[in-house]
Amino acid sequence: LFLDQPLAQDAHLTLDGPAANYLGAVLRLKPGAQVKLFDDRTGEWLAEIVTAERRAVTLAVTRHLRDREPVPDLWLLAAPIKKGRIDWLMEKACELGVARIVPVLTRRTIVDRLNHDRLRAHLIEAAEQCGRTALPDLADLTPLDTLLKAWPDDRQLLFADETGGQSFGQAVRPGPAAILIGPEGGFTPEERDSIRAIPKATGVTLGPRILRADTAMAAAVALWMAHAGD
Ligand code: SAM
């Protein structure tokens, strides 16, 4: 369970709201039950339930289980897609291990506003489910131009290009990287030119078929992880 507060040995915590409801009413945990907690800073801890009531659960932190995990330095830059699909994208990006997600505004992006809290809730749920002790950062919706203008010299930009490019095996270099996935309508020719003008950009292919943006994201992140994600 993720807690948005720093955890420490022997700390006593009182949870209310959804966290208390989840432990007390959904899982029906009783005093003495053990729960794993993480805080995105100090790693994972074991805690024991001291009291469990409908609206409040108290816990005592008993043991440090592991440090916050090192996360491969991969950013995912993706144009937001419609609701159910972007929720899926958050979940899979978190499970597959990305460090940072940047929703990108492009000419053909169909969504121009994001519910940051809802998307972050999906990241937290996915982290809890897959045992991540570090949450991915979630940036605000950022225009593609703004990202490209300030592109860091040391970060490889792998641009998923449905018109063809290098294979991941050929393209991936050691070190910080980002994968850029376009919107369902693809990038405009001008956007393609600005992406290609970045010295650190490499066009990569995910095969001969046109994948939906969410499929392209999962395939690209999995391929990068397989080549560089230790
Ligand atoms: N509108 C485009 C078209 O019809 O040609 C397709 C865009 S595709 C649905 C969405 C994004 O997924 C693309 O911008 C690209 O980043 C990525 N993508 C899809 N298929 C891909 C492939 N085979 N190789 C690399 N990237 C791909």
What are the defining features of this structure?
230 residues, alpha/beta, Ribosomal Protein L25, Chain P, Alpha/beta knot, 2 domains, 7-stranded parallel sheet, 4-stranded antiparallel sheet, 7 helices, elongated, binds S-adenosylmethionine
Q: Would you write up a description of this structure?
A:
It comes from Sphingomonas prati. Specifically methylates the N3 position of the uracil ring of uridine 1498 (m3U1498) in 16S rRNA. Acts on the fully assembled 30S ribosomal subunit. The chain is α/β, with parallel strands linked by helices. It has 2 domains: 55 residues, Hypothetical PUA domain-like, domain 1 (Ribosomal Protein L25, Chain P, Beta Barrel); 155 residues, SPOUT methyltransferase, trefoil knot domain (Alpha/beta knot), CATH 3.40.1280.10. It is built from 7 helices and 11 strands. The strands form 2 sheets. Strands 5, 6, 7, 8, 9, 10 and 11 form a 7-stranded parallel sheet that branches. Strands 1-4-3-2 form a 4-stranded antiparallel sheet, with helices on one face. Strand 5, helix 2 and strand 6 form a beta-alpha-beta unit. Helix 2 crosses helix 3. Bound molecules: S-adenosylmethionine. The site of S-adenosylmethionine has 18 residues, from helix 7. S-adenosylmethionine binds next to helix 7.
